[in-house]
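Journal club prep — side note

Before the paper discussion, L.F. wants everyone to see what a predicted structure for a comparable chain looks like in token form. Sequence:
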Amino acid sequence: MVLAVASRVVPRQRVSKAMAREAAAEAARMEELARNADAPMSVTRIPTRAGDNFKTKSVGLRPMGNSRRIFLLDPHMEAEEMEGLAHRIHALANNEAINSILIASDDQDDLETNCLPRFVTDIENPRYGGLNMDFDPAPQSTWHVSGGYDPLKLAETVSTDGSGEKSSYLLESMRKLALATKGEESGEEATCVPVITMPHGMVTDAGYALCMGGYVLATRQTSFSIKNPSRGLSLDPVGFSYMLPRLGWGHGQRSAKYRGCGMLLALAGYEANCFDMVETGLATHLVSDSAALPILEYDLASIPPWNQQRLVANPTRRYGEPQKSDPNARFRNKIIANIVEQLSEHSCNPGNSLPYDFTVTHVDDPALDTDQVPWDAGFFSSELVDTAAHFDKIFGRELTLEGIMERLREEGSKHSEDEDEQENIRIAKEIVTRMDRQSPLALRVVYQLMVMGRKRNVSMEHCMELEMKAQHHMFQQSDFQEWAAHVRKYGGENKAPPFGAWKHKNVKEVTSEEVDAIISS
């Protein structure tokens, strides 16, 4: 279920004195602009134009015709970068003079092109649409696209931050970024410009804050997992305890029937692949490969801005007459939805179960498009949903974490001659093994957050507040610091063996009082 990670992090280059002077001058200019725009100073951490020094940043933003493109240069961001990016996304999502915001990555190095859109750089080196040009970074590996904060750097900060202000600022920045990407669906603050995310690689923990917009396009390399319980931490404050119990609800998917889908992700560190993500609503669409990126960029850059998208003429308004309703309001953004659908092989909408090849739009006679339905059209399935369905009696009926683990342990200890049963026994055993490797305290806290978050009368914002409280306390726990020391000893998270010297030997040793003190206080 889990792949080793080959990080996309680009080694930082040494900064000369001249570059430092230029950066300082640019920072002063950006600070003046931020003050004039009544924006936080953290917006200066997000480079936005040609000549800016993208090489020292984790994220960059560039104009792209009538759209805006966000480049993910490092899987981990600083708190200031999260806050600055949140402010920019929030402002852009309410800007009627553009049509969309695209957050994307592929298997190329953005810094080599100084963060230019692919459809611009590919003029010299074209990547032919429809051909899979992707490559694996290493055997059994994937790119790490977005992971929120760097847990090792955070551990150092927490150990020297007696007041807890820095960790609180980090958590609040994560929450702001998630809410900005998600946007508002209705009311006076309703978002008019959709956020489209195409993460070509692994997304972990708070990195999913960038995948909470209207469209999430998963490629065959895309995956999602929650690693925090294996670090001695809880859920990051991006609303996981609200989203995970409601997987599949928004699109009436099969995953909505099975509580185990969210539990496996939250408690067992299950790595959801692109099929799992689409079948649970964590991604809205599946695209063939990252070669679709320049096509998407070109289309978005060319579409008229939100306030110029018209299908019918505006009614004549004579002098002195009141403002009439906008006849085009219900048509705006439909073209964005159509382009996304055309680029996609599969959608999380059950009504769109057959793949759709975007090349059909470039064929004069659709009847001649022999590639419209790929060979594997009828074999789209999700191992996550299938596993949750098989163990539904456990995840759906057991009311305690201890009960879930005990029942899974019983399933894993069975013996059978039937091959299908043997596979289910192996899966049950693997789930329990994964849960046993997590911090018992973190597991209990995460499980309690999930129980509280699945209540029908709670909001995502309320769940975020609880997640913030819990995570702030988990930062101070010995489990996190001991894990960080263990990982440093081996030279990194991907090199270190699983850590097991937790404060508690198992979840039964963790008391309800400990959990309540972490979540409620």
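L.F.'s comment for the group: The mean pLDDT is 84. Keep this in mind when we get to the figures.
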